[in-house]
């Protein structure tokens, strides 16, 4: 179907018509602020009405492309929510010989079945909910479009977008799917940082409302760990990470590493990487990192995160900043022998040795990592956790389910990586498994009872002429009786 697109002349005529349409209101009010509000409201109304007429006209044009076996059933209204507002339009419903109904306009345009949000509204809600609460997102959407949505719908959008991001990642990790035209970044050096962040977990029941002081005093803290990470090619002169990609998931370590490897392989050309530096804390799953780039790179070094090393030393020495700075400098200079000798002297001259013994045990367990050094310009994962995840997911009074936290973390990681969000695919109703099975059952019933239907186009609500096909939804015993009766008849 070939349709002429609008020309520059037509656009100029529309612009002239709108200026003539708005001019009387400006003359009457002589107030720019009031006039701008009127223009905004009238724009939404005009766009909504124009889109409604456009959809109904396009539905009329699709009649010529209707399959020969389909017949018209009825007109039915449909309402979709866009950034323009709610659009209610009338479209035709067709029916197949097998009894399957189709809204051809929705199927051609990719409008999802039983889902009101259009793709533009879906993406706007997902991006906004990544920064503010679900209720505030619903309120902001109403102020922008005039369409009311619930905070439950906002939560469903976040869950669906998070699931789409994770599904894409799982396909790359375990099915090896990658688009052929995907451009990869070539870098000889790769920096990888990974860590865990604890997210407050929702309770199975709701407590009565209490004051903040009583609530904080009596509440039982319950949380779970999200495994997060980021990788980048290096830092520029302003100490900003170049080509930084964020990653977050709620999986065991056995699944975390294949997913992280797949994410790295989808962005960077791993065959070109010759030097890899990784940084993490002293957690067990972080030490046993299984990155594929470690095996391919000629130089691969795992470092201890500076933040955790500094925190443990300062925690042991408390207010004695000079002593803490001395041991931190020894650790950065990789002078581990002198560091342990000086620490032993401190332990011998103090009465309360518990915190110094804990520091000694921590340094001994991570001795090999300290010898590797802090790494070139690394140790920013804690700041990433604070700005990317904790800023939205660890606000006071907030708690998450594991599914919702993983979806929100995946959404914020994708936005922080400046990657485009995934638009939900429209329902492929023509090749849906249920409809394919229904067509096969219909063809089987035709072969079983030797029924032949003369396809005709009914007028209005007039039923099509011809014999009626028996469907397989009837009981098998009744099918056999009717089959024998039709054969004898």
Give an overview of the whole structure.
The chain is α+β, with helices and mostly antiparallel strands. The protein has three domains: about 10-110, no CATH class; about 180-415; about 430-489, no CATH class. Helix content is about 50%, strand content about 15%. It has 19 helices and ten strands. It has helices spanning about 10-30, 30-60, 105-110, 120-130, 135-145, 150-175, 210-220, 255-265, 285, 290-295, 305-315, 320-330, 335-350, 355-365, 365-370, 380-395, 400-415, 435-450, 475-489, and strands spanning about 70-80, 85-95, 100, 190-200, 225-230, 235, 240, 245-250, 275-280, 300-305. The strands form three sheets. The protein has a five-stranded mixed β-sheet with strand order 8-5-4-9-10, sandwiched between helices. The protein has a three-stranded antiparallel β-sheet with strand order 1-2-3, sandwiched between helices. A two-stranded antiparallel ribbon has the order 6-7. A hairpin with a 2-residue loop joins strand 1 and strand 2 (about 85-95). Helix 1 (about 10-30) runs antiparallel to helix 2 and helix 11 packs antiparallel against helix 12. The longest helix is centred in the N-terminal third of the chain and has 30 residues, at about 30-60. The chain is elongated. It starts with 7 loop residues before the first helix and ends with a helix. The model is unreliable at about 450-475 (pLDDT under 50).
């Amino acid at each position: 179907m070939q349709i002429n697109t609008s020309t520059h002349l037509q656009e100029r005529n529309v612009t002239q018509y709108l200026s003539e349409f708005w001019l009387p209101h400006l003359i009457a009010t002589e107030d720019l602020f009031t006039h701008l509000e009127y223009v905004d409201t009238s724009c939404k109304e005009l766009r909504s009405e124009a889109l409604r007429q456009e959809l109904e006209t396009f539905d009329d044009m699709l009649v010529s492309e209707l399959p020969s076996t389909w017949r018209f059933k009825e007109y039915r209204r449909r309402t979709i929510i866009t950034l323009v507002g709610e659009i209610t339009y009338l479209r035709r419903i067709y029916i197949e010989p097998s009894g399957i109904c189709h809204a051809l306009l929705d199927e051609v345009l990719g409008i999802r079945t039983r889902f009101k949000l259009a793709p533009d509204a879906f993406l706007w809600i997902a991006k906004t909910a990544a920064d503010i609460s679900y209720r505030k997102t619903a309120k902001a959407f109403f102020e922008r479009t005039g369409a009311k949505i619930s905070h439950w719908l906002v939560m469903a959008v976040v869950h669906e977008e998070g699931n789409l991001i994770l599904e894409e990642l799982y396909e790359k990790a375990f099915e090896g799917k990658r688009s052929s035209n995907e451009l990869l970044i070539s870098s000889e050096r790769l920096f990888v940082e990974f860590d865990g962040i604890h997210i407050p977990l929702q309770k199975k029941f709701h407590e009565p409302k209490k004051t903040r002081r009583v609530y904080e005093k009596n509440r039982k803290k319950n949380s779970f760990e999200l495994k997060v990470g980021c990788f980048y090619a290096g830092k520029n002169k302003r100490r900003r990470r170049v080509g930084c990609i964020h990653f977050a998931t709620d999986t065991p370590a056995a699944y975390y590493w294949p997913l992280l490897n797949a994410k790295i392989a989808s962005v960077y050309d791993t065959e070109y990487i010759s030097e890899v530096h990784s940084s993490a804390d002293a957690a067990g799953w972080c030490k046993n990192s299984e990155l594929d780039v470690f095996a391919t790179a000629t130089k691969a070094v795992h470092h201890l995160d500076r933040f955790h090393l500094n925190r443990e030393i300062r925690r042991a020495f408390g207010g004695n900043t000079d002593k803490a700075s001395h041991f931190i400098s020894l650790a950065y200079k990789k002078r581990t022998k002198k560091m342990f000798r000086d620490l032993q002297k401190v332990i011998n001259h103090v009465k309360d040795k518990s915190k110094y013994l804990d520091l000694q045990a921590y340094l001994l367990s991570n001795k090999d990592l300290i010898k590797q050094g802090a790494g070139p310009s690394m140790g920013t994962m804690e700041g990433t956790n604070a700005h990317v995840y904790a800023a939205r997911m660890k606000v006071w009074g907030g708690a998450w389910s594991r599914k919702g936290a993983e979806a929100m973390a995946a959404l914020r990681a994708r936005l922080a990586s400046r990657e485009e969000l995934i638009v939900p695919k429209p329902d492929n109703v023509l090749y849906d498994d249920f409809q394919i099975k229904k067509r096969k059952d219909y063809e089987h019933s035709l072969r079983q009872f030797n029924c032949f239907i003369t396809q005709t186009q009914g007028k209005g609500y007039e039923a099509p002429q011809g014999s009626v096909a028996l469907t397989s939804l009837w009981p098998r015993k009744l099918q056999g009786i009717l089959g024998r009766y039709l054969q004898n008849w």
